[in-house]
Structures are given as structure tokens and as C-alpha cells.
Q: What sequence folds into this?
């Protein structure tokens, strides 16, 4: 067997059993990575591991004692896997999450893969759905023949995409498959999410207003939903903040509660309590709910 550069991997089985033939390898050319195996069906020339420079036309020549020699040519294409994809935002590589972002902000996410051959294909996905791209750019290295590819996805920061994973896939073209139909090179991926700063959607005091007897305690729960990062809740009576509050964060930060315990006195009758929820990063977007105390004497 030989390549077009006349690199030989002879196997001589003219004497004795075919599996006990004599072999020789050109170690200078293939570095001892090539060997001829007669165990497989049909017998094969094995390159292990294959290098990019091994690409080319290989010729198998069979010489017979009494017949004319035969030749078969095989064109070997060496696929270089795409380099690991990287996500770029504002010219910098980002890992894990992009942000913080404000609602309505435009976000250009560029996925970049360097080093594949043939030219890799880059795609962006969200929850199993392929997304349309803004731009795709590529360039090649004249020495190695490998490619650098970029695919840019444009999004608008909003509540619907906050915390959602977006994944870039880098893979070789779909026509490159093995004999069993499987991809020669498995896709490589990079996943990013969006860190969007959001005001609370709702601040509400739970329960309906009910008259309460003087001298009894009342427990009121204020609940904020949808803030990112979690909302800060404050109870007020007039212009005075109330201190008897227990705060909790639930559902991964999406829900915040502030529980107020207060001893109601007769003079509290007609007092309006306020609960204010605010995202500390958005101090100009507070939400408020009120609760009016009705006190009677037993």
C-alpha cells in the first residue's frame, strides 16, 4: 500500500499462511502510526492516530504470482474537529451568564469556534429550538486549512428570556458521517444564560381586611413576585418603618415575603399599614400595597 508520495507499507504473504506474512513500515514518514492488519475483513491499512498531514490518496497494490497486479485508490479525508465554542459579549469572552442587563436592552451574543476542518457549522438553540442568526462570518488559515467561524445571535433582554439557557453548537457538516450513519465528530457546545434585572411584578398583602379586637396580635404577610435580584420589602405605619418583620426568599429568589407581627391597640383603629417592595438595583420602580386596621373593643 502507498500514498501518492510513495510511502510504502508492504505486506508479503507469498510464502505460507496469509496471516503470517512479512510486514515493513516506513517509520520516518508515518512515525510508526501505520500498520496493515489481516484480521479485519477485508484486510486494512490502519493509521492510529490519524494526523492532518495524512490526508491524501492511498493506493493498495496487490501483486500475484501468475496474474497482473491490481491497484485500488482511496482518498483519505482527515476531519479536524471544531475548536471548543466560546461565547463573546461586548468583545469579551463570557462564561455562565451575561449581564446584568436592563429590560429592553439589545444583546448580541457571538459564538466563535477556531480550528475545524472542513468549515464548522455554528447554530444557536433555545429549549430544543434552533434560532435564527443575525450574522455568520468565517475565515481560513492558509497554512493549516482550518477555519475560524463566528455566529451572532441577537436578543432583547426581557422577563421571558431571563435565566433561560442559550446553547451554541459547533459541528462538522452533516454530510460527513460514518458507515453506520453516525456523525464522525460529535458537536461541541457552549451554554450561556441572561442575567436580566427586573422589577417586581406584584407586591400584595395576603388576606382580606378583618376587624380585630384591641389587645390582640395580628400577623400580616406581604409577598413580592418576579423581582430579580430578589425584592426588598419594608412595612410602614405612616412615615415610620416597622421593625417586627421576618423576611424570607422563596422559589429561587422569584418570591420574597415579609411577615409582620404587631400587637393591635385601640389607637390603631383606622391606621393604614403599607408594604413597599423594591428591587435594590431599580430604586425608582417601587410597588406598594396597603392594609387598613379596624379595631374594636371587646
A:
Amino acid at each position: 500500500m502507498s500514498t501518492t508520495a510513495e510511502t510504502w507499507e508492504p505486506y508479503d504473504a507469498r510464502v505460507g499462511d496469509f496471516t503470517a506474512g512479512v510486514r515493513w513500515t516506513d517509520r520516518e514518514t508515518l512515525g510508526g502510526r501505520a500498520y496493515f492488519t489481516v484480521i479485519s475483513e477485508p484486510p486494512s491499512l490502519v493509521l492510529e492516530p490519524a494526523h492532518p498531514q495524512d490526508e491524501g490518496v492511498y493506493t493498495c497494490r496487490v501483486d500475484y504470482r501468475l496474474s497482473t497486479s491490481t491497484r485500488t485508490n482511496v482518498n483519505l479525508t482527515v476531519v479536524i474537529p471544531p475548536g471548543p465554542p466560546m461565547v463573546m459579549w461586548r468583545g469579551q469572552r463570557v462564561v455562565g451568564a451575561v449581564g446584568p442587563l436592563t429590560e429592553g436592552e439589545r444583546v448580541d451574543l457571538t459564538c466563535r469556534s477556531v480550528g475545524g476542518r472542513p468549515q464548522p457549522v455554528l447554530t444557536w438553540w433555545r429549549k430544543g429550538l434552533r434560532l435564527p442568526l443575525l450574522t455568520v462570518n468565517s475565515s481560513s488559515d492558509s497554512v493549516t486549512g482550518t477555519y475560524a467561524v463566528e455566529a451572532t445571535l441577537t436578543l432583547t433582554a426581557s422577563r421571558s428570556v431571563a435565566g433561560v439557557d442559550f446553547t451554541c453548537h459547533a459541528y462538522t457538516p452533516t454530510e460527513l458521517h460514518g458507515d453506520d450513519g453516525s456523525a464522525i465528530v460529535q458537536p461541541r457546545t457552549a451554554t450561556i444564560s441572561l442575567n436580566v434585572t427586573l422589577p417586581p411584578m406584584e407586591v400584595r398583602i395576603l388576606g382580606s381586611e378583618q376587624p380585630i379586637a384591641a389587645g390582640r396580635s395580628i400577623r400580616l404577610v406581604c409577598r413580592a413576585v418576579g423581582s430579580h435580584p430578589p425584592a426588598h420589602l419594608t412595612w410602614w405605619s405612616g412615615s415610620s418603618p416597622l421593625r417586627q418583620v421576618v423576611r424570607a426568599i422563596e422559589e429561587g429568589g422569584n418570591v420574597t415575603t415579609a411577615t409582620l407581627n404587631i400587637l393591635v391597640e385601640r389607637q390603631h383603629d383606622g391606621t393604614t399599614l403599607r408594604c413597599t417592595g423594591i428591587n435594590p438595583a431599580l430604586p425608582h420602580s417601587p410597588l406598594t400595597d396597603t392594609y387598613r386596621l379596624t379595631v374594636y373593643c371587646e
Q: What stands out?
A: The helical segments are 27-30. The first helix runs from residue 27 to 30. The first strand starts at residue 2 and ends at 3. The domain at 86-197 is CATH 2.60.40.10 (Immunoglobulin-like).
